[in-house]
């Protein structure tokens, strides 16, 4: 540093004000840099999940022939190729949907099994007329609407997912119709459907 | 004698001042004498020390990743010497700590021990409480079992509802967009590093301030003053031992801490509940419909906490102090009430009858209890599987569960088969494994292919019953199109037969049942199939023509079916009847000419195509259902079956 004062002064009992100021600032800056640099490196790594985005995928769920138009829910697991940190899992089950085809409808509706209240797995027992969440007792009709409307614990109806039908033809010349669903994850606890980041 | 020792101590003291340190630590004055009511703080310190000790040893055996967390905890619990006890102590001491915190807090407030100059120490105490609760929350997930996984999932979902920062908070906590490896590494770092480190730091401040202010005497004239050592420390030690005794008793009674089945994102766990001491928050949420949820989950708990932090300042006046006491009693009372209510909601089916008024509540409770039983069954089964000679594959225990017919069979059956078929053990109609369809439109498949099942099929009284061909609108009975089989069995016995002849027919059917059942090669019948070779040979002879001489209508099996020497007769083909491959092929396409052909009026072909995309069910699922129906799964007491 371009400090003109003589080194002898440093040992004196009464350093002048400027010297003292520089000493204090240097101590603080040097100490802080020494501590904060590793901390910043750690925090940056720690924050890395914030820079990752979730992509919702289109997933083949079932054949249309597996969902008769009787208005009854059919349960299907949702399997996608999933990357978890350093692992890639082919066809990992990441959730479930209920497909329901009302009488005469060409296309089923798809309801995700994740409860809009707190994310529990909404259950359906074959023959029952309602979906029931096992956690905080939310109940939904078979079209996904809340049984008790706004008095229901869940802030909104079950989340409906976009459905798409795709025709396929097999090697043996047979054809079939597949049900594809865009598997979107929504935030819980809100009246509106907000995608998770 | 003590000369050299004294010298060493003196040397050490000269260099370190250890005597003075010890004196300060031990010779604290206790105004009014040592008392039992002062032990709670010390028991908490000992409880924390217990957690550090047990935690470090657990750490030495724990591995945080989705393929190893459950597996390493399983290994601690079931394979390492005393591991179950180590886990048990850690688990129940965590519970004890939360209880002791409640007592400590209550006492401090009732005694007014938070008043000046002790305000800051009260605040530090609350911070310690929050850290301990954080330790509980993070620890619950670490075994990566269904229980901890689904409960914590709810917890992080709720955290994500925090205004503004919520979603970011959640993704930082779970280390990404989904639960995975980094959820575990983060929770573990918090649980074993960050939070205990913070706790030690705050605890040192807490104790230092406590020493600076001295003990807050409830009643200084109670007795002559005493010293911390040995008077109070003796009581503290005895109390700590008592706490440990309770914890040990619980750990031994429950055989350590529970370990549910490995976490499975696709397998709902309907009995997911937080730890007992968080149940009140869980129950509290039921009171907040719709978007008010954030009030129950975040706003109100935060406000209550804020008021708690203000207690020392509220309590500066006598009225304020009474307010504080009332507030705390209300809080603890409310917590107790909510906890009791949560438990009642879940377990009421155990002690009440179902009635019209309580139908909904009863059903919810019954569903919870059923899910709990199912979870216990899964947990037991997965332990059997991982203790098989194959042990746990590198991909983790979950793959064992996904490949196990006993666990997956019933689920697949319920999803794809139970719409028409029953799986009902008629000897044990209440058995939990039964999957009941009250109005079946297809045969009961319990014990399919077994001798018992075939004896029923070949019984004139049973063949047209609901468990065989007599189901709703069956084509095989009454006015149906294909009644030959039922007619044959029923006409095998003639009214003109004497008792002896009737006996002969029944004996012949029994032999045929044995022979046909041997085709199935059921693992459970391996022993008797080997033993009864003569009986089976006799049965085969009857099937291939001999039966015609015994029964009234003069026919045998091979007049209609292909079997053994008699091929290209007709179907269903009886070679390999109900064997694994026969059943798989049947499920793939029951209308195949080897099976029912055009007689098949209702059963879907689950996989008739070579192109798997065109099929309803993939090969693996069909195999699992078939193996389950045939009782072909790993049994720990009989290793030969799995080989």
Unreliable residue runs of chain B? 639-643
Query: What is the element string of chain B, with H for helices and E for strands?
Result: HHEHHHHHHHEHHHHHHHHHHHHHHH
Across the major sheet of chain A, the strand order is 2-3-4-7
Q: How does the overall form of chain B come out from the CA principal axes?
A: elongated
Q: Radius of gyration of chain A, rounded? A: 30 Å
The number of helical elements of chain A comes to 1
List the helices and strands and how they pair.
The complex is a heterodimer of chains A (197) and B (643).
Chain A: H1 17-46, E1 57-63, E2 74-84, E3 87-100, E4 109-112, E5 130-132, E6 139-141, E7 160-161, E8 163-169, E9 175-183
Antiparallel strand pairs in A: 1-9, 2-3, 3-4, 4-7, 5-6, 8-9
Chain B: H1 2-16, H2 18-26, E1 29-30, H3 40-59, H4 69-78, H5 83-110, H6 119-141, H7 146-159, H8 166-174, H9 181-213, E2 226-227, H10 228-253, H11 279-285, H12 293-314, H13 318-347, H14 359-386, H15 397-402, H16 405-416, H17 451-457, H18 484-491, H19 499-520, H20 526-531, H21 533-543, H22 580-588, H23 619-629, H24 639-642
Antiparallel strand pairs in B: 1-2
Description:
The complex is a heterodimer of chains A (197) and B (643). Chain A has 197 residues and is of the alpha+beta class. In chain A, 15% of the residues lie in helices and 30% in strands. Chain A has one helix spanning 17-46; strands at residues 57-63, 74-84, 87-100, 109-112, 130-132, 139-141, 160-161, 163-169, 175-183. Chain A has a 4-stranded antiparallel β-sheet with strand order 2-3-4-7, with no helix packed on it. The longest helix of chain A has 30 residues, at 17-46. With 643 residues, chain B is mostly helical. Chain B is 58% helix and 1% strand. Chain B is built from 24 helices and 2 strands. Chain B has helices at 2-16, 18-26, 40-59, 69-78, 83-110, 119-141, 146-159, 166-174, 181-213, 228-253, 279-285, 293-314, 318-347, 359-386, 397-402, 405-416, 451-457, 484-491, 499-520, 526-531, 533-543, 580-588, 619-629, 639-642; strands at 29-30, 226-227. Chain B has a two-stranded antiparallel ribbon with strand order 1-2. The longest helix of chain B is centred in the first third of the chain and has 33 residues, at 181-213. The radius of gyration of chain B is 35 Å and the shape is elongated. The model of chain B is unreliable at 639-643 (pLDDT under 50). The chains are: A alpha+beta (197), B mainly alpha (643). Chains A and B meet through strand 2, strand 3 and strand 9 of A and helix 7, helix 8, helix 12 and helix 14 of B.
